[in-house]
Amino acid sequence: MKSVKVGICGLGTVGSGTLNLLQHNAQLINPRANCEIAVTQVGARRDNPSCDTSAVEVSRDIFEVAKNPDIDIVVELIGGTTVARDLVMTALDNGKHVVTANKALIAEHGMEIFAHAEKCNLIVAYEAAVAGGIPIIKGLREGLAGNRINWMAGIINGTTNFILSEMDSKGREFADVLTEAQEKGYAEADPTFDVEGIDAAHKLVIMASLAFAMPLDSTKVFTDGITKLDPQDVANAREMGYAVKHLGIARQTDKGVELRVHPTLVPKSCLIAGVDDVLNAVMVNADAVGTTLFYGPGAGAAPTASSVVADIIDVARVMNNDPQSWVPALGVSTNAAAARDILDIQEIETSFYMRFSALDQSGVLSSITGIMADAGISIEAISQKEQPATEEYVDVIILTNITHEKSLDAAVEQIEQLETVRGQVSFIRVEHLDQ
Fold first, then answer.
1. What is the pTM of this model?
2. pLDDT above 60 for 320
3. Catalytic annotation on 203?
4. Of the chain's two ends, which shows fewer C-beta atoms within 10 Å, N or C?
5. CATH 3.30.70.260 fits domain 347-430
């Protein structure tokens, strides 16, 4: 049986999990790959007691792995985008196929890396970069290859999903749940990438590049986090039959491609509304198959290692074949890529949930609905929350029908200027995900 030699760079959570999985399941993996996959070198600054490296050469300089003439596949699991980029490019320069779990690297430098891989006639595989153990990359690239993808909507960050699940089920405050998430290891000490939607935006643009055959550009994604969500709005949504989820949404329209990450109201009847805790899920709607749901753990040592090892097996299977089918978005000329217009968030059409505090007196609601009518916004439902008799202001909840975001923004600006309205108008986009 032919031997394929693997070098792992990084022995953190995913790196150690990958080494353990390759070692523990070798008797299953090797027949499936039709070769012996052997980790012969590891590059790491320090040892990790959760894995056994006694039979493996350990280098403190990760670039030694990329330059080792005996290594066939370099697995980049160090994170970040600067050193990781240099490591991947060095590996390609030295004739190594690459497997990575680094979504930021792919989202920010993917086009450069894939172009270099094509030039070197090598494979860059990245299943683990999106949604941990869920095989969404292979699903888009292989399982749905014969379909026209219409839209995708995903819970692709476990930290934000855990926070929103706790806010929904227990009425907790954002800051309180975030602290617990950090204590449990779900959130970093600096949670900005997660709670502000940056991590999800990286993952969304990677999926969109495959689904819509477009170049990678994470700067084009409209991104809104969950830090400003009010528990009252989460509770109101629940009463109205909705769940608030932080979604990454990509949709093809006649005008261009929507790429957006933001809190979203989803009907409780929708499958994705029931995905709670740190789990991930991606709904994909395509012309032939209809709507599919990819669901499972989106992070963690074993689930992410599962995707890394799957890529290693795939690369080993095709090492003697043409790898060009593994390189996304190449062959798309600059002019063709430019024609894939990314819609500004102002051009998005969706429904909206609105909440504001208004004086409890006659004529107030009519002036507000008049503003919305002038803006061309149709109202689906309107309700007024009961307040104590001593309270002059009451909460008003409005659900709109589908409208342009720019129309809503214009109406909100006018409503906030009314003397009968106190404070700002809260609004959350609504997605029914049924067409």
1. 0.90
2. no
3. yes
4. C
5. yes
